[in-house]
Amino acid sequence: MSTWKPDELGDGYEQRTIPLGDDPDGEGAIEATLVRHTPPQDTRAAVLYVHGFSDYFFQKEMAEFFTDRGYAFYALDLRKCGRSRREGQTGHYVSDLQMYDRELDASLAIIRDETGGKPVVASGHSTGGLIVPLWLDRLNRRPGGTKGAGVAGLILNSPWFDLQGKPWMRTVGTQAIGLVAKVRPKDIIKLPPTNAYGTSLHVTAHGEWDFNTVYKPLEGFPVSYGWLTAVRRGQARLHRGLDVGVPSLVLRSTRTKFAREYSPEVDDADAVLDVRQIARWSGCLGDAVSVVPIEGARHDVFISKEEARKAAYATVDRWLGSHDIAG
Questions:
Q1: Domain boundaries, the chain
Q2: What is the mean pLDDT of the chain?
Q3: What pTM does this model have?
Q4: What is the Cα Rg of the chain in Å?
Q5: What is the C-alpha separation between 314 and 139, in angstroms, rounded?
Q6: CA quadruple 265, 270, 276, 277: dihedral, nearest 10
Q7: Which pLDDT belongs to residue 101?
Q8: 3-state DSSP call for residue 36?
């Protein structure tokens, strides 16, 4: 493990790398990056946040929301994502979502050690919102279960629970993608170009957020057959039912607006996922699940317009209090 060093987000943010050895997918040495916000003096609990596809951690407002309430905040840039991607590596590529357990386990151990064993709330957005509950389900099947490992709750922000689009994409389309993945896993799927969501966010276009467009391109990263097959296998596992072992809060927008180019309608809807699918599959998490639609929310609820963000944070506040996460 490396030591903490200053992070590109500036004062109050630090990062450390988590070496993961040789890539099982054949792209050399890999590592993950754990980022932390300056912890509160009286830490009540902690949060571990995991980003989505074509994404990384940059949401300082979210970090400060939690630290203001006594939660030590940590975010993980997964292997080949954001801060963790190295030259020659395929951005975000992994052939099995279970491979992420290594950096998730390591991050949880670091957080528990640094906070003196305080309870941890796991959190994920979009693809991270699929990766994290799959990890917790496996963690819950180990001796002591999820709670024994120190996890006390789960917050998901527009989790990617199913493949959006035409119904045939979830049947014969998925089968065809899987067949190509067996022989050419890193080949890119030809999809219509879109930058509607990215430009709705970035300060140089139509948004208010300043983020690294190398880590989070406005048009997104290409989607490969092997990576999408890994996602579809993860979604199928979710659909069979998980038991994450802790209470969950699922936040989503009230509506979907798919678009290839920006329009003001994109600013108050999910331009990436079908919110009906999120609602449908949230019950598969197991334990107590609260699903709260946020009026006017974007795909990433916590970088929506101010009114929607405030509603989302107020919901999180109430949920944390109702479950007495910090004890």
A1: 5-162+241-259+267-322
A2: 96
A3: 0.97
A4: 18
A5: 29
A6: 150
A7: 98
A8: strand
Mean pLDDT to the nearest integer, 66-84:
97
Q: What is the pLDDT of residues 241-274, one digit of tens each?
A: 999 999 999 999 999 999 999 999 999 999 999 9
Cα–Cα distance, 147 to 244 (Å, whole number): 10
Find the mean pLDDT for residues 60-67: 98
Under DSSP, the state recorded for 98 is: G
Q: Cα–Cα–Cα angle for 134, 140, 143, nearest 5°?
A: 140
Neighbour count for residue 138 (Cβ, 10 Å): 17
Determine the Cα–Cα distance for residues 183 and 176; give it in Å rounded to an integer: 12
Give the integer Cα–Cα distance in Å for 223 and 244: 28
d(CA 230, CA 47): 26
Which stretches within the chain are classed as H helix? Answer: 60-68, 101-114, 128-140, 145-148, 172-183, 196-201, 225-239, 275-281, 306-322
CATH tag, 5-162+241-259+267-322: 3.40.50.1820
Predicted local distance difference test score (pLDDT) of residue 327:
61
CB contact at 8 A, 247 and 290? yes
Helical pair 172-183 and 225-239, crossing angle rounded to 10 deg? 130
Residue 17 contacts residue 31 (beta carbons within 8 Å) = yes
Q: Is 171 exposed, middle or buried (0-12, 13-18, 19+ CB in 10 A)?
A: exposed
Average pLDDT over residues 128-152: 98
The answer to whether residues 319 and 290 touch, using CB atoms and an 8 Å cutoff, is yes
Q: Which two tokens stand for residue 147?
A: 């709670």
In which band, very low, low, confident or very high, does the pLDDT at 324 lie, cut at 50, 70 and 90? confident
Angle of the 101-114 helix axis to the 128-140 helix axis, nearest 10: 80
Question: Taking 80 as the threshold, does the pLDDT of residue 102 lie above it?
Answer: yes
